[in-house]
Design goal:
By secondary structure, this protein is an alpha/beta fold. 35% of the residues lie in helices and 16% in strands. The structure holds 4'-deoxy-4'-aminopyridoxal-5'-phosphate. 4'-deoxy-4'-aminopyridoxal-5'-phosphate is lined by residues 11, 76-78, 103, 149, 153, 173, 175-176, 194.
């Protein structure tokens, strides 16, 4: 028996075991080809089927119609921070940003290098402990787009509604909560997400873009940076990250088998509730970082009475086979990431550990 950790890593993160087993099984001889998927041409029929199936699975899971193109790109979500303004923000227009954390601020900084990007709402003054309520920000109807981050991986906050941007295209960095709950894609102009939390391994970024927005990509943009060019070539303009896309195909297939995003959401809600209940019932020993209405179902962040105890918590938990619980270096504290592949059993084990830890140190 291989010993597998209970994995609460923030990304790259836990992947479904049946998917990893299938990868292992298919590795040396993919579908009778006598080679692995890593070794064959991305122009051949075998790879092309995998590629198109990954797109089709995503379409099915997200109920996403052909008004949208689904792209596979390299460079991580961070590259999208620049590609969004490069493609969608023309000279003389302004982009609006809601910044609710480290990654949203990074997106805004990159956009400002390329054009006129304005912050219309920020949670910085309260250390990014919440997302705005729906009527707390105003979007200029002439804005080129409104950008926000649906789930703040580091701070542990999450939007529980889709912001209303009127006719302004809504752009969302959904890296850390895509495929964790049902989604009305038709509300968005563009969604992007690195795969390495809920969709697969690092190395591929999924971009879902409303086709009319492809017309904004200027023809003089370098081809690899142009959404229009990538979409026209079905993400096969150059050699795509074939192995990562193959794994996205397997993970999305697995999620469909699990009953799709509604049942995934129900399971994620149970997991998060278990953890928040233990925090709230700890008489202040564990203190949640996010305001209750903004709490993330994906990344649960909390503090202990002292930094010394937090260090101990991380050491002792990892000795018990619970890994990835250290908070991001920019904020400290503890963070448990509960992506789709983290099981209820994993969370129960963490909760038991937390009760025991409090008993010993509280
Ligand atoms: N946005 C969010 C919400 C993230 O959580 C991360 C990574 N943790 C990024 C962007 C950056 O992603 P990448 O490392 O793929 O560039």
């Amino acid at each position: 028996m291989i010993k597998r950790m209970r994995n609460f890593n923030p990304g790259p993160a836990a992947l479904p075991l049946p998917v990893l087993e299938q990868v292992q099984e298919e590795l040396l001889d993919f579908e009778g080809s006598g080679m692995s998927i890593l070794e064959m041409s991305h122009r051949g029929g075998t790879y092309e089927r995998v590629h198109n199936e990954a797109v089709a699975n995503l379409r099915k899971l997200l109920d996403c119609d052909e008004d949208y193109a689904i792209l596979f790109m390299g460079g991580g979500a961070s590259t999208q921070f620049a590609l969004v303004p490069m493609n969608l923000l023309s000279q003389g227009s302004q982009a609006a940003y809601i910044t609710t954390g480290y990654w949203g601020e990074a997106a805004l900084r990159e956009a400002r290098k390329l054009g006129d990007a304005r912050e219309i709402w920020s949670s910085a003054s309260t250390k990014h402990d919440r997302t705005p309520v729906p009527d707390e920000f105003r979007v200029d109807p002439k804005a080129a787009y409104l950008h926000y981050t649906s789930n703040n991986t580091i701070e542990g906050t999450q939007f529980h509604y889709v912001p209303n941007s009127g006719n302004v295209p809504l752009i969302c960095d959904m890296s850390s909560d895509i495929l964790s709950r049902p989604l009305d894609v038709s509300r968005f102009g563009l969604i992007y997400a690195g795969a390495q939390k809920n969709m697969g391994p690092a190395g591929v970024t999924v971009v879902i873009i409303r086709r009319d927005l492809l017309e904004r990509s200027r023809p003089d943009l370098p081809s690899m940076l142009s959404y229009a060019r990538i979409a026209k070539e079905n993400s096969l303009l150059n050699t795509p990250p074939v192995f990562a896309i193959y794994m996205v195909k397997l993970v999305t297939h697995y999620l469909l088998d699990q009953g799709g995003l509604k049942s995934i959401q129900a399971c994620n809600a149970r997991k998060a509730k278990l953890l928040y209940d233990i925090i709230d019932g700890s008489n202040g020993f564990y203190r949640g970082c996010a305001q209750p209405d903004s709490r993330s179902q994906m990344n649960v962040t909390f503090r202990l009475p002292t930094e010394e105890l937090e260090k101990r918590f991380v050491t002792e938990s990892s000795e018990s086979g619970l890994i990835g619980l250290k908070g991001h270096r920019s904020v400290g504290g503890i963070r448990a990431s509960l992506y789709n592949a983290v099981s209820l059993e994993d969370v129960r084990t963490l909760v038991d550990f937390m009760e025991d830890f409090q008993e010993r140190h509280g």
